[in-house]
Design a protein that fits this description.
Layout: H1 2-26, H2 32-40, H3 44-54, H4 57-65, H5 70-77, H6 82-100, H7 106-124
Length: 125
């Protein structure tokens, strides 16, 4: 008599132990609409930083010298992911002081601009 009761007790405990974590995993901390918004949201600060950099007259001039239109690059910036935008924005922030320095850093600035342009073209193409 005690064996069937013990077996049913064990089965009940195992069922509760397995189902509780499974039920907890089924619930989410965010709703589906919040998740969708987070995934599709554009990272405005980094994107704005890169867009501003691409509008700089010296960058436009350097890009035109390479046969690349900054308007094409600006259109492609919106399709980049957050990690890539963050890397490019970091590089543009590092480039801004070099651009302000004048002719003493022309070669460095040109190399950075070319690297940025190649990176954007390779990532988007």
């Amino acid at each position: 008599m005690f064996k069937p009761l013990a077996y049913s007790g064990i089965v009940t405990l195992v069922t509760l132990a397995v189902s509780t974590p499974a039920a907890a995993q089924a619930r989410s901390a965010v709703t589906a609409s919040e998740l969708e918004t987070a995934v599709t949201a554009t990272p405005a600060p980094n994107q704005a930083e890169v867009q501003r950099f691409l509008q700089d007259p010296r960058v436009v001039e350097a890009a035109n010298g390479l046969g690349v239109r900054t308007s094409d690059l600006a259109a492609r910036v919106g399709r980049l992911d957050e990690a890539t935008l963050s890397q490019i924005a970091t590089r543009t922030r590092a480039t801004d002081p070099a651009l302000a320095g004048g002719s003493t850093v022309v070669i460095t600035t040109t190399v950075i601009i070319i690297a940025l342009l190649i990176l954007i073209v390779l990532l988007v193409a």
